[in-house]
Automatic annotation (TrEMBL), chain A:
Membrane topology field: Multi-pass membrane protein
GO molecular function, one term: NADP binding
Name the UniProt record assigns to this protein: NAD(P) transhydrogenase subunit beta
InterPro entries listed in its UniProt record: DHS-like_NAD/FAD-binding_dom (IPR029035), NADH_DH_b (IPR012136), PNTB-like (IPR034300)
Function: The transhydrogenation between NADH and NADP is coupled to respiration and ATP hydrolysis and functions as a proton pump across the membrane.
A single Gene Ontology CC term: plasma membrane
Enzyme Commission designation: 7.1.1.1
Family membership noted in the UniProt record: Belongs to the PNT beta subunit family.
Domain of life: Bacteria
Keyword NAD on entry: yes
TrEMBL record, chain B:
GO terms of molecular function: NADP binding; proton-translocating NAD(P)+ transhydrogenase activity
Pfam families: PNTB_4TM
The name this protein goes by in its record: proton-translocating NAD(P)(+) transhydrogenase
Known role: The transhydrogenation between NADH and NADP is coupled to respiration and ATP hydrolysis and functions as a proton pump across the membrane.
InterPro entries: NADP_transhyd_a_C
Catalysed reactions, as listed in the record: NAD(+) + NADPH + H(+)(in) = NADH + NADP(+) + H(+)(out)
Length: 457, 102
């Protein structure tokens, strides 16, 4: 049915596009962010209603059924997923979006005419498939279903080059012939390129890859808008592509590297320092009571939370410890590395979940000059983001990544499960420093004991 | 849509995207990624248009798969972003009543 005229359809799509821009704009402050997101959701709802009222559609009952199935699967997962698993979920949703775009373009191939539209079909299919396969590998790495180390095999560089060249050639054939058989092959090659692109990326760099693939899906959606002659898809896709690109670059610079270095670093075979296993050098370990005394009689404490804290579900306990110390007159702040956790800003979400007010969360540039005036730096379940190897050992995989300069602190306390190295797989010299004290154990357990000991003082 | 109009739309959108996102604080980078992720779920309308034009049952099945995947992207993206943003709270007024300078 087409109740709406072309003009009304275009106007309603424009309204939806404005809603999406407002959704992103709302994120400039935590106060307006939630309302912005709701505006975005309203825009999406408006767009979906508009498409039903404007296009001549068959199979409407089946389409509604598919929408119901998609919602019934996604909504409960989104409500129940733990905040620690957020990066996997974002990668998953990104992958299915890319997959959907690739399928849409392939189905439109028969209706597409003109070289530019066919180029857009090929682009959407290829980039959508890369995003789908790449996201699948990202999810597997984050869930630790496969190794978090870079996966490389001899000659991978050549296989990758061959796959990309083949994809471009076959893409050209599809543009020239419009053949669905070649298009299927293109889809398969796109998936292969996605796999080969993400497999060699090391665990610590996975957050950047999620953001990059997010931008890819955005571009695929924009290209699908060209295929379907739909302005809303062009605008929404371009918006995500542009914002994803900015975010990816901001994150890469927060880690002190170029995007290409992250994506192709493993091909160059540079990161030999990543192979160190745990050593048996002596460290100074302590007990919860001593740590409690150090914390309670300090002037200023900076807490550096890492992913280990989240895994142990210790964010609520650490929030309580911070409140308790503040009540005793200790100045407490949280120092958050931009890539703490498994995606940028992940740690902020986890601490927000534990009711830590966002004013207490300090960014790296803000907190680094303050470490030398800090009595005790409490590092909980973080490792790579405080590892001085990023500044001192050029062979290390994290070399060049800006770190939280906790080594400047007067005393450093590490809460660690074991001497196992961090996500990047390298050892931290700071653990053997004379001013470092270690408290071994599950982060939440240790924090509960320290909290109990502080309360008993 | 003629190519020049299309190019105009794309170029202006790129600038809007750069402008809007460069103002997002790093505190909100995770919700930003998740929110942008939800927005590209709008490929759903493309999937609906395609699914509504097909006759072959196999192709319809593929199109319906695309509809379901796109819906998961769109619905899941917005729900999870809302859940995350609901957790960000400022200091309680009772604790620091004078903290109005920020």
């Amino acid at each position: 049915m087409s109740i709406l005229s072309a003009e009304w359809t275009a106007l309603l799509y424009l309204a939806a596009a404005v809603c999406f821009i407002l959704a992103l704009k709302g994120l400039s402050s935590p106060r307006t962010a939630r309302r912005g997101n709701l505006i975005g959701a309203a825009g999406a709802t408006l767009a979906v209603i508009t498409v039903f009222l404007s296009a001549k559609l068959d199979n409407i009952p089946l389409i509604l059924l598919a929408i119901a199935v998609g919602s019934a699967i996604a909504a409960p997962i989104s409500r129940r997923v733990q905040m620690t698993q957020m990066p996997q979920l974002v990668a998953l949703f990104n992958g299915v979006g890319g997959g959907a775009a690739a399928l849409v373009a392939m189905l439109e191939l028969g209706h597409s005419e003109g070289p530019w539209v066919l180029v857009a079909v090929v682009f959407t299919m290829l980039v959508g498939a890369v995003s789908f396969a790449g996201s699948a590998i990202t999810v597997a790495k984050l869930q630790e279903l496969i190794t978090t180390r870079p996966v490389v095999f001899p000659g991978m560089k050549w296989v990758m080059t061959l796959a990309v060249v083949a994809a471009l050639v076959i893409g050209g054939v599809v543009v020239a012939t419009g053949s669905i058989g070649w298009a299927l092959l293109l889809l398969v090659l796109g998936l292969a390129v996605g796999l080969l692109l993400v497999l060699p990326v090391g665990g610590a760099d996975v957050p950047i890859v999620i953001s990059l693939l997010n931008a890819f899906t955005g571009l695929a959606v924009a290209a699908s808008g060209v295929v379907l002659d739909n302005v809303l898809l062009v605008v929404a896709g371009t918006l995500v592509g542009a914002s994803g690109t900015i975010l990816t670059r901001a994150m890469a610079s927060a880690m002190g590297r170029g995007v290409s270095g992250i994506m192709f670093g493993a091909f160059r075979g540079g990161s030999t320092a990543g192979s160190t296993t745990q050593s048996d050098r002596p460290v100074r370990s302590s007990n919860p009571e001593d740590v409690a005394v150090m914390l309670a009689y300090a002037q200023r404490v900076v807490i550096v939370p890492g992913y280990g804290l989240a895994v142990a579900q210790g964010q609520h306990t650490i929030a309580e410890l911070a409140t308790t110390l503040e009540a005793r007159g200790v100045d407490v702040a949280f120092a958050i590395h931009p890539v703490a956790g498994r995606m940028p800003g992940h740690m902020n979400v986890l601490l927000a979940e534990a009711n830590v007010p966002y004013e207490s969360l300090k960014e790296m540039a803000e907190v680094n000059p303050e470490f030398k005036n800090t009595d005790v730096v409490l590092v909980v379940g973080a490792n790579d983001v405080v590892n001085p190897a990023a500044k001192t050992s050029p062979g290390a995989p994290i070399y060049g990544m800006p770190i939280l300069e906790v080594e400047e602190g007067r005393q450093i306390v590490f809460l660690k499960r074991s001497m196992r190295p961090g996500f990047a797989g390298i050892e931290n010299e700071l653990l053997f420093d004379p001013k470092t004290t270690l408290l071994f154990g599950d982060a939440k357990d240790s924090l509960t004991k320290v909290l109990g000991a502080v309360n008993a003082l | 849509m003629d190519p020049i109009t299309l190019l105009t739309v794309i170029v202006l959108t790129v600038f809007v995207g750069f402008e809007v996102v460069s103002k997002v604080s790093s505190t909100l980078h995770t919700p930003l990624m998740s929110g942008a992720n939800a927005i590209h779920g709008i490929i759903l309308i493309g999937a609906i248009i395609v699914a509504g034009q097909l006759d072959d049952p196999w192709l319809i099945a593929v199109a319906l798969l695309a509809v379901a995947l796109a819906t998961a992207n769109l619905v899941g993206g917005f729900v999870v972003t809302d859940r995350m943003l609901g957790m960000f709270r400022g200091r309680k007024p009772a604790v620091t009543s004078k903290d109005t300078t920020k």
